[in-house]
């Protein structure tokens, strides 16, 4: 597995880099960014994966979230993958901002023509961690995951499906119940096909009812979020948690919207949350 | 003076907004961004102006520098203007990234066709502060200024020319001696004309020798900065400071480049520097 360094720059005493490689899962060149905190060369650190939202790339979170300062303080390696394969030229891939390129939804597609390439779940949970653990100073198997919006959905689903691998899970304004909202219906309908019984394996509120996550989950939600009514459904996650005794810290913040200004404002709490659970 | 709200979003308990207005100084619509920290409505705060570098806009610093957290903590209002007038259609204005649009150099042009519009010095030191003090919860006359690269030049020049108004000055990788480097020669040659005696009023290293700033100045410089050799000349500022007894904290950082990753890494120190001097 060969990784190309696109850029590496000093930041907070560590290194922020953008890398690319030929992905086996997607059949495309994939990019990801990594922040390595100071001191990691001498003592490998836990890896915390951030999954970004619709239209974002591997750069968005690193630049806009203000997370690196806290990752440096806590000694966490931050990893941010891209949000989908790119440049495949599949029909419809570029037609809308909430489907196709930039909108991989962190699942493994089952319907054509997406099936062979839109495999962001396997990419994020297997191929990318293998690359990271081989090439960066991280502790193998010591992972946390968090994300925003579509990436919050991804983080919740990945944590709930792999509690043995991911020790900490949090999300900003996640799509909590995608089978029941327009974004999810559009994406799942195309990627997974019309049989809705195939969708449930990728819905955090449904997964949680089957098997809660063994630790508490942190979710922040802005109350002026322009997508709160209709797309996010934190109340579905809350109901699922209540039904099965899942510990859930769901914080509703008056006045905050869906942007990275919202994420910035609460990012310190998320880094502390993961650091505590990953044992930095 | 009428200001249009382009956006206003909650961030760190305060508000980040982008605003526009018809500028008297430039004869164009100008945009600026403002972060108002929590509590400012009840008790107005000092205003700290950030001047960005070549190609940047009023948004760059607010999104990329990670400054808002610290401004909220210290109770500082942050103001970031655009880097030049835009859309004038002057010949040559769009031909290069280091001159014209996005490259106003924070001076008042004296040569045609720039003279009537490229008046960023008067804009930043007079027109914009008047707008800010009229429309935002800031303490009148309690100002600090800092900036990056071309904006570091701007901050140093503005502080040195107006020590009674600006109580605190700092810079990241400033163009310290523009009359002697390609960026400055190109910009000053066009904006000010070929008579180099007209240039000295806009060069920090020369201004400092005439009249030092009454307080210490903080400058951070990365030693892997791709523009350090040839464009920035921190040694000129250092020599000027030594010659006239100017207090100067010039920190050279191994491994850091010219980017906002560098700025992020040391932004907390700059906010603390200004907060201490502005008496928040």
Automatic annotation (TrEMBL), chains A, B:
Top-level lineage group: Bacteria
The keyword Hydrolase belongs to this UniProt entry's keyword annotation: yes
Enzyme Commission numbers on file: 3.1.2.12
Gene3D superfamilies named in the record: alpha/beta hydrolase
Reactions the enzyme catalyzes: S-formylglutathione + H2O = formate + glutathione + H(+)
GO MF assignments: S-formylglutathione hydrolase activity
First-level EC class: hydrolase
Its biological purpose: Serine hydrolase involved in the detoxification of formaldehyde.
NCBIfam families from the UniProt entry: fghA_ester_D
Name assigned to this protein: S-formylglutathione hydrolase
UniProt source species: Reyranella aquatilis
Origin organism lineage: Bacteria, Pseudomonadati, Pseudomonadota, Alphaproteobacteria, Hyphomicrobiales
């Amino acid at each position: 597995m060969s990784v190309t360094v696109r850029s590496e720059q000093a930041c907070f005493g560590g290194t922020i880099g953008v890398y690319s490689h030929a992905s086996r899962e997607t059949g495309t060149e994939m990019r990801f960014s990594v922040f390595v905190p100071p001191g990691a060369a001498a003592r490998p650190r836990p890896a915390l994966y951030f999954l970004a939202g619709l239209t974002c790339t591997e750069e968005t979170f690193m630049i806009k979230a203000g997370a690196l300062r806290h990752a440096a303080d806590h000694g966490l390696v931050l990893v941010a993958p891209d949000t989908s394969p790119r440049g495949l030229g599949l029909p419809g891939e570029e037609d809308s901002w909430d489907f196709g390129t930039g909108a991989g939804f962190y699942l493994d597609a089952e319907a054509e023509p997406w099936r062979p390439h839109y495999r962001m779940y396997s990419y994020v949970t297997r191929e990318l961690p293998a690359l990271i653990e081989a090439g960066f100073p991280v502790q193998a198997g010591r992972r946390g995951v968090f994300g925003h919006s579509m990436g919050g959905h991804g983080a919740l689903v990945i944590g709930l499906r792999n509690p043995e691998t991911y020790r900490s899970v949090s999300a900003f304004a996640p799509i909590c119940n995608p089978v029941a909202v327009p974004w999810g219906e559009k994406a799942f309908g195309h990627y997974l096909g019309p049989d809705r019984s195939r969708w449930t394996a990728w819905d955090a509120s449904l997964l949680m009812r089957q098997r809660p996550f063994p630790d508490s989950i942190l979710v922040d939600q802005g109350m002026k979020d322009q997508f709160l009514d209709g797309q996010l459904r934190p109340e579905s996650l809350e109901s699922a948690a209540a039904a099965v005794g899942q510990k859930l810290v769901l914080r509703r913040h008056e006045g905050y919207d869906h942007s990275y200004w919202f994420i910035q404002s609460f990012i310190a709490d998320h880094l502390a949350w993961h650091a505590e659970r990953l044992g930095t």
